[in-house]
Each structure stands twice: as structure tokens, then as C-alpha cells.
Amino acid sequence: MDRQTWQAVDDYFTGQLSGPDPVLDAAHEANALAGLPPIDVSPAQGKLLHLLARTVGARRILEIGTLGGYSTIWLARALPTDGELVTCEISPAHAEVARANLARAGLDGRVDVRVGPALDTLPTLDGPFDLAFIDADKRSNAEYFRHALRLSRPGTMIIVDNVVRGGRVADTDSDDPDTRGTRAVTEAIAREPRVDATAIQTVGSKGYDGFLLARVR
Ligand SMILES: C[S@@+](CC[C@H](N)C(=O)[O-])C[C@H]1O[C@@H](n2cnc3c(N)ncnc32)[C@H](O)[C@@H]1O
Predict the structure, then answer these.
(1) How does pLDDT run across 112-136, given as a tens digit for each residue?
(2) Element (H, E) at 84
(3) Which of 9, 84, 91, 145 is the most buried (most CB within 10 A)?
(4) Test site for ligand 1: of 23, 31, 39, most ligand atoms within 8 A of the Cβ
(5) Average pLDDT over the chain, rounded to an integer
(6) What are the C-alpha distances in Å from 153 to residues 71, 99, 150, 195?
(7) Which helix (H) or strand (E) holds 48?
(8) Cβ neighbour number for residue 201 with a 10 Å cutoff
(9) pLDDT band at 148 (very low <50, low <70, confident <90, very high)
(10) Which helix (H) or strand (E) holds 20?
(11) Binding-site residues, ligand 1, Cβ < 6 A
(12) How far apart are CA 27 and CA 35, in angstroms?
């Protein structure tokens, strides 16, 4: 099995289960045109985020790491019209592209893009949020999780993306700051009595990675 097969399988399921989506295609095109790196979630992962947000009946969503707003669109579409999504992005250029993509998607009224280091923005926010999606610089994951927990309520779902890192997460000696950040958040969650959690390995159009899912007790 190789990445070409994972891509073909992702294309098959996305084609069958999600279908064409001109708004999301336009967001991808705008991101590429603006030179953003293609590190957004895959369509299948975006749909999973959307379904999870609907499953928990999310009315307020927190996202850390906006990029061009691809995952933001999937998540914000799960909100009721009076719902709110706050998304944190350090890069003004990324935030500008995201705002345009969200406006084109008709979601700008529901989404608040906060520009700046997430660790500066998060202390200014009030909870509770019903779902938090952590997908920014991985070295800060443990601190992001701490804030997501502070801003949660019992039942809040917290998702941490890219926790497998091509298998590098299992390398106990890794000096890669992103791998260390991922291990740090995993171990903090393991010690945290207020959540139940699991982590799932995935393959697909984005390669071999995975996500961690926690539910606040
Ligand atoms: C993996 S991308 C997010 C992808 C997006 N969630 C999606 O799937 O469409 C990570 C984003 O986090 C942003 N970022 C990196 N460090 C950050 C920080 N300290 N605070 C806020 N955002 C940060 C990067 O600029 C980048 O846009």
C-alpha cells in the first residue's frame, strides 16, 4: 500500500459521500493562489469534523490554527445560524485568505478570526465551547489543550490533529519539537482526570498521521 492508493481511496469515498463542493474547491484554489501550504485537513477529515460538531450539537466552536479556513468552513457549517466559531491564526496573510474564503462561503457572520499567537488570544476568550479543534504549531499542543479544557464544559469534545506524525510520535528519543509537543499533550491528557481520550492512526491523501479525541467528563 502506498500514498497513491490512499489518495485513490480517499477520492472514492469523498466522491461518493461528500460530492462536489464548489465553495470548498474555491477555498483550495484561493489558498494555492495565495501561496498557502497545502496542510489543511483532507475533505474526508473535514467531513468528519463537521459530523462530530453536529453530533455534539455544537453551538460554539474553538479552532486553533486557521490557515485558509478550510477546516473552519467544515466546522462552521455545522453551527446553527446563531452559533459562533472563534479561530486563532498567527499569520495575518493566512487570516486574510481565510476571511475571504469564509465570506464566499457565507459564514463570515458566524466566524471570528483572531489574528495573533494563539497563546496570546486564548487567555482573552470566555467559554464554554462545545468543541475545540487544535491544529496549529504542534510544539504548543499541551498549552493549547490546557486552554481548551479551561474553556470547556462537561461533554465538550477536544480534537488534536496530526498526533501520529508518520509514526514519529512513538520515538521516545525524538528531539523534534513538534513530536515532543505531541508526546507532551498526550501525556498531559493521560494524567488529566477530567477527560477520557483515545487516538486514532489514519492514512489518506495527507499521508500517515492521526488525531486524538478527548471528551470532557
Ligand atoms: C496545519 S495549519 C491549519 C490548517 C487548518 N486547520 C485547516 O485544516 O484548514 C496550521 C496553522 O496554524 C498557524 N499557526 C502556527 N503557529 C501558530 C500560533 N502560535 N498561533 C496561532 N496560529 C498558529 C499557521 O500559521 C497555520 O496557518
Answers:
(1) 999 999 999 999 999 999 999 999 9
(2) strand 84-89
(3) 145
(4) 39
(5) 97
(6) 23, 28, 8, 11
(7) helix 43-55
(8) 12
(9) very high
(10) none
(11) 39-41, 65-67, 70-71, 88-91, 94, 117-118, 135-137
(12) 12
